Amino acid sequence: MERLAKLLLWQLLLQQIPADASNPDSVVVSVLNISATLGSQAVLPCKSYRMVWTQDRLNDRQRVVHWDVYSNYYGDNKMERLCDMYSAGDQRVYSSYNRGRIFMPQNAFTDGNFSLVIRDVAESDEGTYSCNLHHHYCHLYETVKIQLDITKKAKEAKQYWDGEKAVIVALEGSTVMLPCVNRNHIWTERHSEEEQQVVHWDRQPPGVPHDRADRLIDLYASGERRSYGPLFIRQKMNITDTAFAVGDFSLWISELESADEGTYSCHLHHHYCGLHERRIYQVFVTEPVREKKVVNLTTHNTAPAIDPNVVRGHNVINVIIPESRIHFFQQLGYIVATLLLFIVLLIIVVLITRKRRQRGYEYNVKKYGEKDVNLKEFTVDTTDLTQYKSEDIRLDYKNNILKEKVEQARSFPAKNIDLDKDFRKEYCK
């Protein structure tokens, strides 16, 4: 659901932006999401009947204008064709009554003025007139409607707009002109159509903006084709040779890969007809679904007979874990193994550190143990030591060596040896 919501939001945003920076008048006409499996062939449909080019030799008959009138004067409420004219031909008036009475300018397709002139108007001329412009090549149809009313009073003759069409109130017996002017270049000028029709495809890799899209193919109505990019891309992406003949400019992508994902755009430009359209396709490449193989152990499609004398054990249920879960368990196993290895290394470091500390303590004890003195060899006079024991010796230890000497002095107090006493004993003997 979250992915679908993102796609819908993405479509709304694309519909609000211009279709092509080089053609600001072009519009986005469709946005499609296409999903295909890896290695398959994808088709991005891009069709437009307005882009069909058949190189018609009768170019002069591709533009036509005709006037019709809808009248209920005779109570039949019917539509009647009055006259028509092609871009390189004489105008034709259908009713003999109107010949010489109604006409259009001869230079209509040069000047763009297709107005209808009616001489000596009568009450039978009342009705709704329509000026119809048809461009069969560009598939353009434009219509202008005018309401004509007849009056016998000159003061009532006027022109106004009723909100939908122009209304002309003409004096009976006068000459009136119904205006229809369109000076657009497609109605007044001739162009080389095959040089102004072009279709091109762009591709935006994920994360790349539209203005930096890669051009894939350019195709012109004259038959010229241009392909861009590396050779392998030009070989796997193509448009049919009959594109302009049938109006099908779909892009075929063969042997889909994950790198083919992205946003594709089909640009249709018909400069002569004023057509600028863009179609957008978001392509996703999915993994193919793997079929589960079922092994049939039966013979001739018959199940083996059940032996009632055989004691059967418990039923075994095989659980098939999806590939995604297996991958998850593998990653979890890697993490757990890494943590256990880290804990073992930490324990080893702690043990080595403690062992080194114990060795250092034994060395210090041995060092000071070599200096032990046998106190039985000396006679110690302790009569004068009481005053020293009661004193509080406060020393400023400047370093560890002085501290060690003070500790030794406390452990082994000074000995008072009376050498004169030993001398007197020897002399008396």
TrEMBL record:
Membrane disposition: Single-pass type I membrane protein
InterPro entries found in the cross-reference section: Ig-like_dom, Ig-like_dom_sf, Ig-like_fold, Ig_sub, Ig_V-set, MXRA8
Pfam families documented for this protein: V-set
Ranges in coiled-coil conformation: none
Keyword line: Cell adhesion, Cell membrane, Disulfide bond, Glycoprotein, Immunoglobulin domain, Membrane, Repeat, Signal, Transmembrane, Transmembrane helix
Signal peptide annotation: 1-21
The keyword Oxidoreductase is annotated on this UniProt entry: no
Localization in the cell: Cell membrane
Protein name: Matrix remodeling-associated protein 8
Native organism: Dromaius novaehollandiae (Emu)
